[in-house]
Design a protein that fits this description.
Length: 391
């Protein structure tokens, strides 16, 4: 058994907390070297007391001061800022980095981990949506190991042949079937979608998640981002990735082979399964997850997605087909629109409308370098904010 030294970025979030839950079950396997958080200083301090990392990273000096006093007398050193996030992701003594910051802010530290050749446990799908080409290049050039945490991509990874090298045809793969729960509004009368409140949108039927990804699940932008994520992770063309609605969230995704076989990964909807899979890979460890009781679940159903109900899903396919900076633009505009919706400044249907207008208006931005993509991200945020009332 290998002892693994971990950096957990976004430790105070849903994925971070679930990761620490799995880690706590296997003190002989995992040691925490660094934890990061943004606003929840007391929670981060408590995690530091329990897991005794060498470093704790926050983003601003005020939070660092608070954390410092909470951690007085412990061995944990407090570091500040994006450079520190990158530094703890590339430390020689760290072998695995859980990239679980939400949004575009997660890109730079995830990239630092890839460039340092780490095992990158990637929850932050926005990294691949924004900069998939450059991130995958860094993984290959620096011989990093990329393990998907997103439950769908983890399921696809598990259903692919061992040692999958990015050649779908060579492995006899026909299609990737990404399952989607359909979120809280799968059957709600379409004409009432205009009245959806943030509280309704974040109440996901099957999963407990951060607010941003919960809203993305309600609009199905989450599935759109995941289609783009799958394109880069598995080197698939858009038409090789199909979305299937599966309201029970038991089949987490599937791989279809040329001989007609479809391989799937099933489990209860609990992120500790993909997290434990990636933490221990290629070993298997207990994750604290309830055993799957199929007789109790009774039925597994599947249906085609309704693009009229979920225009964000269509927009994501369009952005993927347009290529270049379009996915980064879509992602950035979405972050702005979702934040405004959660803040009651934008109605639910305004999310898709904002994305469509921003994508149309910024169709010719360059995407030759990471800097280009950062600029596209900034331009999309400005364009989105210009469309959204300030209060
Ligand atoms: P969350 O909101 O619960 O947690 C986000 C974490 O990132 C927190 O620790 C927060 O402190 C930190 N953070 C937020 N903004 C930051 C910034 N600007 N700079 C540095 N740190 C920042 O989110 P989550 O649900 O844990 O999701 C994390 C990532 O994992 C997202 O990219 C999400 O799409 C992905 N993901 C989550 C789930 C899930 O079930 N929650 C499933 C699949 C993928
Ligand atoms: Mg997912």
């Amino acid at each position: 058994m290998t002892l693994r030294n971990l950096t957990i970025l976004g430790a105070t979030g849903t994925i971070g907390v679930n990761t620490l839950d799995v880690v706590a079950r296997h003190p002989d396997r995992f040691r925490v070297i660094a934890l990061s958080g943004q606003n929840q200083v007391a929670k981060l301090a408590q995690q530091c007391r329990q897991f005794q990392p060498r470093y704790a990273v926050v983003l601003d000096a005020g939070k660092a001061k608070e954390l410092d006093s909470l951690l007085a007398g412990t061995g944990t050193e407090v570091l500040v800022g994006m450079e520190a996030l990158e530094w703890v992701s590339a430390l020689p003594e760290v072998d695995s980095v859980m990239a679980a910051i939400v949004g575009a802010a997660g890109l730079r530290p995830a990239l630092a981990a890839a460039r340092a050749g780490k095992r990158v446990l990637l929850a932050n799908k926005e990294t691949l949506v924004m900069a998939g080409r450059f991130f995958m290049q860094a993984v290959q050039e620096h011989r990093a190991t990329l393990l998907p945490i997103d439950s769908e991509h983890n399921a696809v990874f598990q259903s692919m042949p061992a040692g999958y090298d990015g050649n779908l045809a060579g492995h006899g793969v026909r299609r990737i079937l990404l399952t989607a729960s359909g979120g809280p509004f799968r059957t709600r009368a379409v004409e009432t979608l205009k009245d959806v409140t943030p509280e309704q949108a974040v109440a996901h039927p099957n999963w407990v998640m951060g607010k941003k990804i919960s809203v993305d699940s309600a609009t199905m932008m989450n599935k759109g981002l995941e289609v783009i994520e799958a394109r880069w992770l598995f080197n698939a063309r858009p038409e090789q990735i199909e979305v299937v609605i599966h309201p029970q969230s038991i089949v987490h995704s599937m791989v279809e082979y040329l001989d007609g076989s479809v391989l799937a990964q099933l489990s209860n909807p609990d992120m500790r399964t993909p997290i434990a899979h990636s933490l221990a890979y290629p070993d298997r460890i207990e994750a604290g997850v309830n055993w799957l009781d199929l007789a109790k679940i009774g039925g597994l159903t599947f249906e085609a997605p309704d693009f009229a109900r979920f225009p964000c899903l269509k927009l994501a396919y369009h952005a993927l087909e347009a290529g270049g900076a379009a996915p980064a633009i879509l992602n950035a505009a979405n972050e702005e629109a979702v934040a405004a919706f959660l803040d009651h400044r934008l109605p639910y249907l305004g999310i898709a409308a904002t994305l469509e207008t921003v994508l149309e208006g910024l169709s010719d931005l360059a995407a030759e370098s990471l800097d280009d993509l950062m600029e596209a991200d900034a331009a999309a945020r400005r364009a989105a904010r210009a469309l959204i009332p300030a209060s």
